[in-house]
């Protein structure tokens, strides 16, 4: 079922996120140099990739994230030091077309094992046209280079497909620990399958199927569970919508039974609350999980996804 994501280009909102990444448990800290350990050294581009590497690699890997805590993944610029770390590592795990500087660094590096998560599942376009013309939105948070939506990790099924591919890559690159990688991958995929079931059952019977976000990140999740994401497009996080624009949104919200405007943990909720207040709607957090910080509603991917499900069930009127 291809549930398209409609964009509302007339309402300005917090389109530019400022998501950070928590220090990874498999890392020895931001100062730790990749490639200088007696483990299988993996450089990950940002949190969803690093989490996979940690869960699949277990005690056999040393994971270093290129995106530091508090840093917005899309805007990452690779430093000379990070380029050196990349060269010294055993493998790199990244998501092509999400972070251009990472793509460039990986292409230029001589690292033997290069794992592109985007090649391990199918990427799709999620509607970015409104009224027959392209919506003027920030490419970094809707579609990336190539016109495909990169937010595959928010769909547990696609994330599981990526996990399986990463597991096979680890087994091939570090055959001494292949059995453990295979076992860990199976365990992770089983958890993701269970999470998929939670979402499927939890969102099966709801009063509405439409939800509004300030970040067009949930196209895959919406498509997986028969929902429609209304992504409010905007250029300036601090700008306020006009009365006419809010009226348009209010009309749509009433027609589709929308109750809530979702915003992100680390982005100002000013615009979301302005829109919600004028339209008589509530606000809540829906986390795109580009990073984990102390403000996240959970300590890792699974706990934040469960918080997202709870928020969606509440907003959609789960029965």
- Poorly predicted runs are 1-33, 128-142, 234-238
Helix content: 25-40%
The biggest sheet, with number of strands, parallel, antiparallel or mixed sense and barrel status, is:
5 strands, parallel
Strand content: 5-15%
Strand order of the largest sheet: 1-9-8-10-11
Radius of gyration equals 20 Å
| Count of discrete alpha- or pi-helical segments spanning 4 or more residues | 9
Overall 3D geometry? globular
The SS-based structural class is alpha/beta
Q: Can you put this structure into words, describing what you see?
A:
- Helix content is 37%, strand content 13%.
- It has 9 helices and 11 strands.
- α4 runs antiparallel to α5 (178-202).
């Amino acid at each position: 079922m291809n549930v398209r994501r409609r964009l509302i280009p007339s309402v300005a909102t917090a389109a530019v996120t400022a998501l950070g990444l928590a220090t990874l448990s498999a890392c020895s800290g931001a100062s730790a140099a990749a490639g200088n350990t007696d483990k299988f050294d993996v450089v990950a581009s940002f949190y969803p990739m690093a989490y996979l590497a940690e869960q699949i690699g277990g005690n056999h890997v040393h994971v270093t994230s290129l995106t530091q805590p508090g840093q917005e993944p899309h805007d990452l610029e690779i430093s000379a030091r990070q380029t050196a770390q990349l060269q010294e590592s055993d493998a790199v795990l990244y998501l092509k077309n999400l972070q251009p500087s990472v793509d460039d660094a990986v292409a230029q590096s001589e690292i033997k094992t290069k794992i592109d998560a985007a090649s391990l599942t199918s990427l799709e376009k999620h509607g970015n046209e409104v009224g027959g013309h392209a919506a003027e939105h920030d490419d970094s948070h809707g579609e990336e280079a190539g016109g495909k939506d990169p937010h595959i990790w928010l769909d547990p099924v696609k994330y599981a497909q990526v996990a399986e591919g990463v597991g096979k890559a680890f087994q091939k690159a570090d055959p001494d620990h292949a059995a453990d990688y295979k076992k860990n991958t199976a365990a992770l995929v089983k958890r993701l399958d269970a999470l998929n079931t939670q979402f499927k059952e939890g969102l099966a019977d709801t009063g509405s199927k439409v939800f509004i976000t300030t970040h067009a990140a949930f196209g895959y999740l919406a498509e997986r569970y028969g929902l429609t994401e209304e992504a409010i497009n905007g250029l300036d996080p601090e700008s306020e919508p006009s009365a006419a624009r809010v009226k348009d949104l209010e009309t749509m919200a009433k027609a589709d039974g929308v109750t809530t405007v979702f915003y992100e943990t680390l982005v100002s909720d000013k615009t979301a609350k302005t829109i919600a207040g004028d339209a008589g709607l509530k606000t809540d957090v829906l986390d795109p999980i580009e990073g984990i910080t102390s403000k996240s509603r959970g300590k890792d991917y699974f706990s934040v996804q469960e918080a997202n499900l709870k928020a969606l069930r509440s907003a959609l009127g789960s029965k």
